[in-house]
Design a protein that fits this description.
4 strands; four-stranded antiparallel sheet; globular
């Protein structure tokens, strides 16, 4: 299996590049969340069409969501930040979806990864563990 294939990681990046980290707390009022899933999917699709977009990773539990989007450079990130549909979604997030959020912009200087070797999943290994 090639590095990272099938795992929820953005692959194919080469530093330096930028990461925009958005940590959110969703409203606890179900009425406030009407349309949230659709809006989030629309923003993910829209971001992917911005020149310089490298990918996105996200995680959410009941109290906190974290979305990390990766960008070739600050100009690409600025294009995303200033996109008219994204600006409208930001306003909707403040008015309806979120209790609060924090955004962080980071320059990625170095990256590395580890992936479990395929031979670790071999039948022989599984037999030894039983």
């Amino acid at each position: 299996m090639p590095s990272g294939e099938g795992l929820p990681f953005v692959c194919g990046t080469a530093p330096p590049y930028y990461a925009a980290i958005l940590t959110t707390a969703l409203s606890t009022d179900a009425a406030d969340l009407a349309g949230y899933v659709e809006a989030a999917a629309k923003m993910a699709d829209l971001a992917a069409r911005i020149d310089g977009y490298l990918g996105m990773e996200f995680a959410r539990d009941a109290g906190c969501g974290i979305t990390v989007s990766y960008w070739r450079d600050l100009d690409a990130l600025r294009s995303w930040r200033e996109n008219i549909e994204h600006v409208a979604a930001q306003h909707l997030g403040r008015e309806q979806f979120y209790l609060g959020y924090r955004a962080r912009i980071c320059r990625v200087e170095r990256e590395y990864e580890w992936t479990r070797p395929a031979e670790w999943d071999s039948p022989a290994r599984n037999d030894r563990e039983q």
